[in-house]
Design goal:
This protein is of the alpha+beta class and 81 residues long. The chain has a single domain, classed as Alpha-Beta Plaits (2-Layer Sandwich). Strands 2-3-1-4 form a four-stranded antiparallel sheet, with helices on one face. The longest helix has 14 residues. The mean pLDDT is 88.
């Protein structure tokens, strides 16, 4: 299973810190960030957090990220202007 979240994380340093925390909490998941273009405000300007594993609790991960101040949502088809 693969889940994709969009986030407002812009820096490589912060993305690495978040990855380390998530990997400690969810060691069986494969998790990585792709930092994207931020010329537009979130959600149109965003980074991508990919999560792979047999079971992914996106609600738990989303709440954790929001608890540390990260805006995030499941990736949806969006039209950004």
């Amino acid at each position: 299973m693969v889940e994709v979240l969009i986030t407002n994380v812009k820096s490589e340093t912060l993305s690495n810190e978040i990855l380390n925390l998530l990997k400690l909490k969810h060691p069986l998941l494969k998790i990585n960030f792709d930092l994207e273009d931020f010329n537009k405000p979130y959600p149109c300007g965003h980074s991508v957090l990919r999560i792979e594993g047999d079971f992914i609790d996106t609600n738990l991960i989303t709440k954790f990220l929001q608890g540390i101040g990260v805006e995030c949502d499941l990736l949806e088809e969006r039209t950004c202007v």
